[in-house]
Amino acid sequence: KQWYQRRVAITAGGRSSTLAVPFVAVIVFALLPFGLIFVMVSGDGYDQINPNNRNKMSGNRLALPIAGYVAFLVVLILFAVCTKFDSDTVLTMGGVNNTERQIVSSSAGHMMGSYGMMMDATAMCVMGFGFLYAFCRKYTWGGISLNFFICGLCFLWCQVCTCIITSIFEGEFVKTEVNIASLISADLVTAAVLITFGVVYGFVSPCQLIVICLIEPIAMKLNEHIVVKNLHTSDAGGSILTHAFGAFFGLGLTLGLGTKPAHIPAENRLTNYMSDTFAMVGSIVLWMFWPSFNGALLYNDITVQQRVVVNTYLAICASCVVAFVTSSLVHKGKFNMLEIQNATLAGGVSIGMSCSFNVDPWVPVLIGGLAGALSSVGYAKIAGFLENLGVMDSAGATQLHGIPGIFGALAAGIVVVASTNNQYFSANTQWATADDNTNGKQFGMIIASIFCTVAISFTCGALNGLLIRIPFCDRVNKQLLIDEGPYFEIEGGCSDSETPLEVMEVKA
User: pTM for this structure?
Assistant: First the structure.
């Protein structure tokens, strides 16, 4: 209480609550050098014991139950303190002696109109990412089920994180109003955590995942507040707020954790026909529902929402076509399934920031097509280059979310500069003209938002990687990276039909 009183006093005295921004940045960047020194002197964050049985779990087998119950208890207590239902959800009595229940009628622009889109976005997180992460034959169950676990925890925890970050910047305690809009916002935040999971796919234990799920949403909400409220950058589809943030947080996490490509047993990087089929189903689910993911929060402006849906649809169709063609070109007339599963979706990532812009239909087609080609080439060429540098990204999230997300923000900046009516799309989803906001200044804000997002995500990810090295967290054995054996009761074993992930091709 005294802390909030001091914050209110500071704000009343003329200093903006945005003083929290440099304060947090200084603390984070001051801790990073010490963390990197720790990485160099402590090796990696993996168990060195040579296992006799891939189904035997090393470490403290009670670590996950204890961490899970404690995390749930913390979420439950903070949920009671930090959240409330909005006015349309709470039962209201009226009439004679307040004995009649008041009925709230639906109206144009009401958030319940986005319920279908909210469920589409949720299906993307649970089913789309889940099946997409079934691509490794020894981590099919792990990819699907741990993805499900992340969704359940993050959907709840995001409501608490919104209250924490809003209260810090507002200088007073502000409870989160739980409604359809807040659930959609939780979907966007959860998607970033799932993208990070793709980077460290098979490198972290379920216990370590709990720590990641509790930290990354706070960091993302902090970055979102700075980008949207302070830099006034609109990113309706989350090109940088969701996709780039999740990818670079994951890369920072691998740095802090000490993950190297050489640590992974070659046989654990294999895929088979069935696992790739599951992954392709996930890609199709993501492709179908991506317009809803980008436009769900814009229920208060049907014109903007329709524009978002149409632009996203055009962009993701274009990326699908160009990704297939580019994959065939790069691989001498054959399709690479890893690229088909991922690069076809790059249009939805890249159009996220500019999907709400009032542009001609050919613009999203161009952006989506370029993103599809960029992502496909990234999987074919850049992924191997990064591995040679010692950077490991299991699911190739950098090529699907990181690079296309940055590209999408740059494309949005070019669209802003090329605009002839000196209008910009502000963060509150309404077109506006401001005397002090020129096309050039808005472009500068977008560039600043990119640097801010990359810096916060990578730094927080590296610190998170250091944190999950704590002895209490059960760590993955080096010989069991990308292996679900220690975490599941497996009776039938794995299929003997296997092909290397990086060379699996299907004739056109």
Answer: 0.84
